[in-house]
Amino acid sequence: MYSSGIGWQGIFCILLVLGLVLLAGSWHYRETLPAERRSSVAWHDILHGFGSVLRNRRFVGYVLQFGFAQGVLFAYIASSPFITQEHYGFSAFGFSLCFAANAVAIGVAAT
C-alpha cells in the first residue's frame, strides 16, 4: 500500500502539492472569447436563474434521485472496509484487492 510509508497525513500533503502545481499551471491560460463578444451578468440574473431551475419539478426529482444514489454509494464505500476486515477477517491489502476487483466488476457490468 502506498500509505504505509508516508502515513495518512502524507497523502494529504501530496494532494496539496498536486493541487498547488495545478493551480500554478492554470495561471497560464488566458480568456479565449474575444472582448467584443463578452458580456457581464448581474447577481440578480444568476439568482433568478437558480430559482427557475429549482422550481422545475423534473429537475428537482432527478437531483434527489441522484443524491440518494450517491448517498448509497458513499455508505458502501465507508462501510466496506469495516465489513471486509472486521467481519470477514481480510487484511488491509486483501481488502484493497477485493475492493479493486469489485470496482472492475462494476465497471465491466456498466458497459
From TrEMBL:
Keyword Electron transport among record annotations: no
Gene3D superfamilies named among the record's database cross-references: Multidrug resistance protein D (1.20.1720.10)
InterPro entries documented for this protein: MFS_trans_sf
Protein name according to UniProt: Drug resistance transporter, Bcr/CflA subfamily
Species of origin: human gut metagenome
Keyword field: Membrane, Transmembrane, Transmembrane helix
Transmembrane segments: 6-29, 59-78, 90-110
